[in-house]
Amino acid sequence: MKMKLMPDYTGKVRDVYDLGDKLILCSSDRVSAFDVVFSECIPGKGKILNSVSALWFEYFHGIKNHLIETDARKFPPPFCDDDYFPGRSVLVKKCKRIDYECVVRGYLSGSAFKEYKKTGQIAFADIRTGYRESEKLDEPLFTPATKNDIGHDENVSEKTMKDNLGDSVFSFLKETSLKIYSEAASKLSEKGVILCDTKFEFGFLGDEILLIDELLTPDSSRYWDKETYSVGISPPSYDKQILRDYLEKTGWDKNPPPPNLPQDLINELSLKYNKLEGIVRSCLSEK
Hints:
Blueprint: E1 9-10, E2 14-18, E3 22-27, E4 30-33, E5 36-41, H1 45-59, E6 67-69, E7 89-93, E8 96-97, E9 100-107, H2 110-119, E10 121-122, E11 125-126, E12 136-142, E13 145-146, H3 158-165, H4 167-189, E14 193-205, E15 208-212, E16 221-225, H5 241-248, H6 263-285
Antiparallel strand pairs: 1-2, 2-3, 3-7, 4-5, 6-7, 8-14, 9-12, 9-13, 9-14, 10-11, 14-15, 14-16
């Protein structure tokens, strides 16, 4: 019997195999929300995340990233011979992660809307009054957060991030994040899809900063259909927001253990993830 290859690190969704100066990132079918992993899986989710991310990395090939190989048959042995890895894995350069999530918001939704209602701010910056839930912001906002392996990520101010990383690194991360968001949002708009917000991660390879982890997946982004978009509500989405919206109504305190997920919700998530993958593929296949 073939032994299952065990990861060196297990994240909320991804399993990491350490090959020295390289890593294999394998997207599982696990699902998490509010930094808690659920016992149920979403069938096929890992392959969809991997596909969407690879499509966007290829589209933004002018921005240096960590990808080496997306074809698992070309991975080093024994990974190239294991039928679990194709379609859900990538071979990447091993970088020193910058421990901030680079969040860009084009619309006021989710935790940002809650903060705005309570304080009149987003990521500790004053924002004009009068915004309603899910309303388009006057311009996309960069709202960083700490990247924590344990517990919840925490929003921080631009000043905090700049003080910790230095002006040049901070400026590169902010400008690159806003550039990717704006171009992706424009491209998706042509297909009738709104990119509400997303988050990016970066890492150092020597002195060079590379775009790492996942890119514009339905786990790291909020995607809305223009036809069902409306201000004043949390619009129907193609992403994990479906799960978050369900959980907000359950009374769960967002700490382990999580509640069980009903099968109809799992089916809905699977359907929407598949549809989003098709939209992205269609969108990026057009020159």
